[in-house]
Amino acid sequence: MGKTNKKVPAETESRQNSGTKLKKKKNPNREIMRITYLFLLIFVGMIGYYIKFHIKDSDDIINNTYNKRQAILEQEITRGNILSDDGQILAATLTDEEGNDYRKYPFDNLFAHSVGFSTHGTTGIELLANYKLLTSNASIIQTALNDFKGVKNPGNNVLTSLNIDMTRAAYEALGEHQGAVIVLEPSTGKILTMVSKPDFNPNEIDSIWEELVSGEGNSNLVNRTTSGLYTPGSTFKLFTLLEYIHENPDYNAYSYDCTSRITIDGNTVHCAGRSWHGGENLMESFANSCNSSFVNLGLTLDKGKFKNLCNSLLFNSELPLSYPYNESSFVLNESSSGFETMQTVIGQGETLITPVHLAMIAAAIQNNGILMKPYVITEIQSSEGKKLEEYKPEEYKRLLSAEDSAMLKDFMRGVVTNGTGTKLNTDAYNAYGKTGTAQINDGSQTNSLFMGFAEKDGKAVAICVVMEDMPEGSTFAVPAAKKVLDEYFRVF
Question: Residue 2: pLDDT above 50?
């Protein structure tokens, strides 16, 4: 039979076509929802930015030296005082005979980098608390009286954690040498001392400004505690030690016979001062700061794991620090040569670190692996002494396990009792640390370093000392650290 062509009624065909047209028609509700979601997304983004601005970025923007609002505030408010931990004035605004305001720093050079200055830009705490110092919370009566007299209202005062006696001890410990000393309280993160040399007198900033910024090789304005990048020398063996222990559970079985040098593939590394240490275990290798032994064990490390460890300990990372700073750098990787590895594991080569970073590591070790966020501003007060804001200790994060911290403490204690840090061995407190001598400028100069901590009767303090251009193999940073630690346990 042939195929039958069945005719579709016109009405049915019309309905089918109508149905097809209805299917193709756009849903207006869907378009409305898309637009709604778009605006909702924009709104959420604006809320996120608003929160970020007020919580994270507001202080930076307000304290930016290009913020014209500060200039307006300076016309209306007398800049508040900056105070030490016991309330002594570190910076104040005075008025000269002609009625002009000027900033006075009673301790001259002593707090040059920690407190900073507020002319020719702002630095130090003058910068960190700029907006707070130019904000007035004077009483209504005082404000009304000042308005009637046509005088400025007094700005708020800033209380800090800086201790005058310890800062003076650190300043004197450095003597005529360039370098840096920074002291932290491990349990809170308070910065007790921050000294950098060469320095300057902030009272004379106007007259010496051109010399400070134009003098060839002049680095007086650099805060070496936070921005000075140093070759760590043997202080870096702390990181090498930790990686070796992670990779070798039987690390207590390690032994090495030191003959004052080690040669690998034609590359030779000597122990400091050409010392001959003889037979050593791992504890003795660390206490004696034996370069040969650490090259020997360092060449066995997994470079990728080593890099990950160092990054987890804040190399190539942002630091939880309000002061301007430079990031420490660790560049060893899987493609690095044997010579680069030999140099890196003993703290030479291209590795660079700041004193504040070393102090943070020491503080975390003492504090069972937890790093508290370093801070220097503890309280904001009105000009009449009323507490307006209080800054409390804040945990940053765990850098080390409690087990690693306890193990490192044992090794660092050995440095003081039986190694290169014996000048810190005292009955007044228990000290822990690691010394370092870093060769720079092709070995023509050396820096002496010490990082560590001390504790007694529940009190503890972490410290890092760097003394530049010292004799090769010296441990000058150790007695300098002792002067500061002695002062801490006397004061606190």
Answer: no
